[in-house]
Amino acid sequence: MNLVLELFAIAVVIIGTAFSVIGVLGFMRLPDVYTRLHATGKVSIFGVVLLLLATVALTPLGFAKGLVLIVLLVLGGPATSHALGSAAHRLGIPLRQALRDDLQALESSDHPEPQRVG
């Protein structure tokens, strides 16, 4: 059983490291903040969770702590990426080569220009 856990941990570490390397390359190569957030969001969820799974498999004393960290990452990672993307959009950071901007249409309809009288 120990050999199976070690093989599982090695495979998960390799896959998690591959996700992390691809995410870093995406962060360096992608053109704007929104696509970079997509790349870093995948690293935080897939890369780190897979590395935590390897840790949980090899250290039985940290099983509960590892599972709590995995749950917190799965719940907090997408919310954090969304908050950063929303803040970037509200600051006016432009999309690069955007075909359309659905949020711009929503913001302009929510806050119409004030009308002047006279």
List its traits:
single chain, 118 residues, mainly alpha, elongated
Q: Topology, pairings included?
A:
Elements (H helix, E strand, L loop, with lengths): L1 H28 L3 H26 L4 H29 L10 H9 L8
The biggest beta sheet reads: none
**Residues in helix, %:** over 70%
Taking all Cα atoms into account, the compactness measure Rg is 21 Å
| Arithmetic mean pLDDT | 83
Q: What percentage of the residues does DSSP assign to strands (E)?
A: under 5%
Structural class: mainly alpha
Spatial gap, N to C terminus: 83 Å
Q: Could you list the spans in which at least 5 consecutive residues all have pLDDT below 50?
A: none
Whole-number total of structural domains: 1
| General form | elongated
Number of helices: 4
The H-and-E topology, N to C, reads as: HHHH
Q: How many DSSP-defined strands?
A: 0
Overview of this structure, please?
Helix 1 packs antiparallel against helix 2 (33-58) and helix 2 runs antiparallel to helix 3 (63-91). 78% of the residues lie in helices and 0% in strands. It is mainly α. The protein has one domain (2-110).
Short description:
It is built from four helices and no strands. It has helices at residues 2-29, 33-58, 63-91, 102-110.
